[in-house]
Amino acid sequence: QVQLVESGGGSVQAGGALRLSCVASGRSFSNYNMGWFRQARGKEREFVSAITWNGVSTEYAESVKGRFTIVRDGVKNTVYLQMKSLKPEDTAVYYCAADSLGPTKPRVGVLPSEYHLWGQGIQVTISS
């Protein structure tokens, strides 16, 4: 069973940058589509970005397009979310998620229900 551990969160001012990391331990995640979601206080969990198991295709929420970049490193079993030009509305707990059925899917999932493994979440706070 793959376990996901996020790191790299913190507090920065608006306009700043952060890089979140999600390390998958336990077994290779080479067949896993990987996603990032976030949940602001009082709001539902929302899709941020995802990448296919082979790294060929990515997907982004409209609110983060052009500012966030998702990449994966198969050697390090790690997926990264590079975030720049951060805004106060990006403040949330960010979650890494995995879908082990990557090769069977025509696209990455954008709904939380499409992922069955989750990290514990990490806080990102952007001050104005």
Name the structural class: mainly beta
Q: Indicate the low-confidence ranges by residue numbers.
A: none
Calculate the mean pLDDT score and round it. Answer: 95
**3D shape:** globular
CA-based gyration radius: 14 Å
Q: Tell me about the largest β-sheet.
A: 7 strands, mixed
Give helix % range.
Answer: under 10%
Strand segment tally = 11
Distance between the termini: 40 Å
**Please, how many helices?**
0
Could you tell me the strand content as a percent range? Answer: over 45%
List the helices and strands in order: EEEEEEEEEEE
Which assembly state applies to the chains in this document?
A: single chain
Outline the fold blueprint:
Layout: E1 3-7, E2 10-13, E3 18-25, E4 33-39, E5 46-51, E6 58-60, E7 68-73, E8 78-83, E9 92-99, E10 117-118, E11 122-127
Parallel strand pairs: 2-11
Antiparallel strand pairs: 1-3, 3-8, 4-5, 4-9, 5-6, 7-8, 9-10, 9-11
